[in-house]
Design brief:
Blueprint lengths: L1 H11 L5 H8 L4 H7 L4 H13 L6 E8 L6 E7 L4 E6 L10 E3 L3 E5 L3 E5 L8 E4 L9 E5 L2 E5 L12 E5 L4 E5 L15 E5 L4 E5 L4 E6 L4 E7 L6 E9 L2 E10 L2 E11 L5 E7 L2 H8 L9 E5 L2 E5 L6 E8 L4 E8 L11 E8 L3 H9 L4 E6 L3
Antiparallel strand pairs: 1-2, 1-24, 2-3, 3-25, 4-5, 5-6, 6-7, 8-9, 9-10, 10-11, 12-13, 13-14, 14-15, 16-17, 17-18, 18-19, 20-21, 21-22, 22-23
């Protein structure tokens, strides 16, 4: 009997390795793979093999919730589509300068008449502080293009040039003035009316209502356009972003009081004149996107890699997730409840959205900092 028991115990303690271990690891949330790498050399190899071949890392959507009351505490919640879970990120609250904002998909910033503070790394481990630009702007367009931050428009008409443009060089840590935004944007030169997207060399700004688009090169300081990104008379509002280095436009079809559908196009060509419809959001997800809002005048879009995340700023309880597959020939749509508003905090919190490529390296670095902690919160389907 004792001999049989010993054999059973040895069988129960037999190590898991090879293909079986890699398959098991595909079901393990990314943040739990960090300690798994420390088990042994073979486990570390299995973790990386599983991520490489079976269930790869996918971009995170991070929702930053800033209290609108003193001391303006900020909390962060990340949705990991690889693991289908929300992750609460416990970290020191972001030092308050002013209302937290985001631009395109990965830049967080705060600005005051005296300081401009921003961060673009995946988990905001590093913040840059600069003196304020020369022109005070309550609602500017902000983007990080290469090594330069572009801040444009959004200034008050009283005394300041509403179309003023300045760039901040991360290397020299100095501001530089540029030519104004195109005059045609004078009545819509604020982030409220414009959608912003960035590739490796340029910033693109599009009027949400008209589709008129311009590009700006911060090195040559040259504006180009307008490009016509109108998507038909039934699209009343649209936003732009890049999906795997390809420009995509997401448009609301119908009218603000009755959104009939949400469609996605790819835009190509030197003059951005080739528009190819990629996909249409399923009807049941359009209902979730609208939520309880009596009208939807525009939507928020964050994109990275082959993922697009959409939300309704008027009712952010649901996040719509679209994974663009097979080069755009197929799109997988889904939705997830927004963990940042699960407790009703949407009433008293300023919600700001960013995307981040978070892998084991970024998580290792964040944990080594000693002031970050990640806790899994089940996704709210």
């Amino acid at each position: 009997m004792a001999k049989h028991q010993t054999v059973v115990e040895e069988e129960e303690e037999a190590p898991i390795y090879g293909d079986i271990l890699e398959a098991i690891l595909t079901h393990v949330p990314l943040i739990d793979l960090v300690p798994a790498c420390r088990v042994s050399t073979s486990w570390k190899s299995a973790v990386f093999s599983s991520l490489r071949h079976l269930n790869p890392v996918k971009p995170w959507l991070i929702v930053h919730a800033q209290s609108t009351r003193n001391p303006y505490t900020t909390t962060s919640h990340a949705y990991d589509p690889r693991s289908h879970v929300w992750v609460d990120i416990e970290q020191p609250s972001i030092k308050y300068v002013s209302t937290l904002r985001s631009s395109h998909s990965n830049l967080l910033y705060m600005q005051s008449p005296f300081r401009f503070v921003f961060s673009s790394d995946p988990l905001q481990l590093t913040w840059y502080t600069a003196v304020a630009p020369l022109v005070w702007r309550p609602d500017p367009i902000v983007a990080l293009v290469g090594e330069r931050v572009v801040i444009a428009g959004g200034a008050c008409d009283f005394g300041d040039d509403p179309l003023a443009v300045e760039t901040y060089d991360l290397k020299t840590r100095a501001w530089d003035t540029c030519d104004d935004m195109p005059a045609i944007l004078k009545d819509s030169c604020a982030s409220t009316w414009l959608s912003v997207a960035v590739d490796k060399t340029k910033m693109y700004v599009m009027e949400k209502c008209s589709g008129a688009t311009h590009s700006f090169d911060p090195i040559t300081k040259i504006w180009q356009g307008p490009y016509d990104l109108r998507l038909g008379q039934h699209v009343f509002s649209s936003v732009i972003g890049f999906v795997n280095d390809r420009m995509f436009v997401v448009g609301l079809v119908g009218e603000a009081e009755n959104v009939e559908s949400v469609k996605m196009w790819e835009v190509k060509g030197e003059m951005l004149d080739m528009k190819i419809e990629i996909s249409e959001m399923p009807k049941e997800l359009v209902v979730k996107l609208k939520g309880q809002s009596p009208r939807v005048s525009s939507i928020g879009m964050n994109s990275m890699g082959n993922f697009v995340f959409l939300h309704n700023p008027s009712d952010p309880a649901e996040v719509i997730v679209c994974e663009v597959q097979n080069g755009g020939s197929f799109c997988s749509w889904g939705s997830v409840g927004n963990a940042a508003v699960d407790d009703g905090s949407r009433i008293v919190m300023n919600l700001v959205y960013t995307c981040a490529n978070v892998g084991l390296g970024e998580l290792h670095q964040a944990l080594r900092s000693g002031d970050r902690r990640f806790t899994i919160k089940e996704a709210m389907e």
